[in-house]
Amino acid sequence: MQHLISLEGMARERLHALLDRAQHFAGLDPRAAPPTSLAGVHVVNLFFEPSTRTRLSFEIAAHRLGAQVVNFDAERSSTLKGETLADTFRTVEAMGAQLFVVRHSESGACEMLSELAGDGTHIVNAGEGRAAHPTQGLLDMLTIRQFAKRPFEDLSIAIVGDIRHSRVARSDLHALRALGCGDIRVCAPAALLPDADELQGCRVVDAADEAVSGCDVLMTLRLQRERMEDGLVDSLDGYYRDYGIDQRRLSLARADAFVMHPGPMNRGVEIESAVADGPRSAILRQVANGVAVRMAVMEALAG
Ligand code: NCD
Fold first, then answer.
1. 127 alpha carbon to ligand 1 midpoint, in Å?
2. Which pLDDT tens digit goes with each residue over 197-229?
3. Cα–Cα nearest to 97, from 117, 78, 115, 125
4. Which of 200, 196, 192, 197 is nearest to 176 (CA)?
5. Which of 133, 265, 270, 287 gets mutated to test ligand 1 (max ligand atoms within 8 A of its CB)?
6. Which atom of ligand 1 is nearest the CA belonging to 222?
7. CATH dotted code for 12-132+287-302
8. Which atom of ligand 1 is found nearest the CA of 221?
């Protein structure tokens, strides 16, 4: 594996192998002598969109593997003088950086860079457009493997919220299908559902109460207003009433069900604070798993 652009088409065995390695890293004491599999490697965080957890967790993961990390600040770069993404990439590659962690607003940006990249250069997609966010998909699968009481085949997973604009949901769906998840329910207002061809293997459920009923895993998503044309959602109060995850709605899920959210959260819009911070929230475990998964991915590419 030279690059990680998408989870689409990734074999189940490879997914589980990456998750096994991430589980190993998750169990290490961060203060113990660090692994050195990325010693001598320069990792460049090339982020053209805002990020908190993804960028910082890639940075911590790279440090924990012994890599050198360089952060590119798009707001203070020659991007503002009109330099293209391709030229920016070629420039930093010429300095000897080997691993590029890329976040960009355009779907296809990472694929384009992977075609330009030399043999020893690796591209990791850290979220592009609506298309894919493969390391988020992996950390979500690791979290499900840790929390769920049953194998993927026997799980009912409800994904509620702005699926149309979500690269996280797309990568989760790629992974859930590959892992053989038996029951995937998707629920959103019609304007926030993706096209039908993206929902193969899923059951569209109109009412959130029905989607949540008896599920094992409840994933909610941020209402992504920056990627949305105006008017797709009439009112935030109405959205919260119909699709928000509050304690009443959560009580319809299985007693051992847990709640996931990729962050950042809009509290009171897609999730109630009492749920986000409550005993059935897996949200901070998702964050912690982000470091372990990114270690596993970077080691697989450049270790
Ligand atoms: C997501 C993203 O940027 O795609 N956040 C993340 O990486 N954890 C989800 C979002 O922005 O809603």
1. 7
2. 999 999 999 999 999 999 999 999 999 877 777
3. 117
4. 200
5. 133
6. 12
7. 3.40.50.1370
8. 12
Residue 132 DSSP code:
B
pTM of this structure: 0.97
Please state which CATH number belongs to domain 134-281: 3.40.50.1370
Instruction: State the Cα torsion 240-246-251-252 to the nearest 10°.
Output: 20
Nearest CA to 301 among 18, 50, 30?
18
Give the Cα separation of 260 and 283 in Å (integer).
5
What's the pLDDT tens digit per position in 20-60?
999 999 999 888 877 899 999 999 999 999 999 999 999 99
Q: Say how many Å lie between the CA of residue 33 and the centre of ligand 1.
A: 31
Rounded Cα distance between 48 and 190, Å, is: 30
Domains of the chain by residue range: 12-132+287-302, 134-281
Mutational test site, ligand 1, from 56, 136, 142, max ligand atoms within 8 Å of CB: 136
Question: Six-digit token pair at 10?
Answer: 């990734």
H helix intervals, the chain? 12-26, 53-64, 85-94, 109-116, 134-147, 167-178, 208-212, 236-243, 247-250, 273-276, 283-302
Ligand 1 atom closest to the Cα of residue 263 is 8
AA identity, residue 5: I
Q: Which residues line ligand 1 (CB under 6 A)?
A: 53-54, 127, 133, 136, 167-168, 222, 224, 262-263
CA 172 to ligand 1 centroid distance, Å: 12
Residue whose C-alpha is closest to residue 276's, from 229, 194, 117, 285 = 285
Token pair listed for 13? 């065995």
Which SS3 state, helix, strand or coil, does residue 267 take? strand
Ligand 1 centroid to residue 237 C-alpha, Å: 22
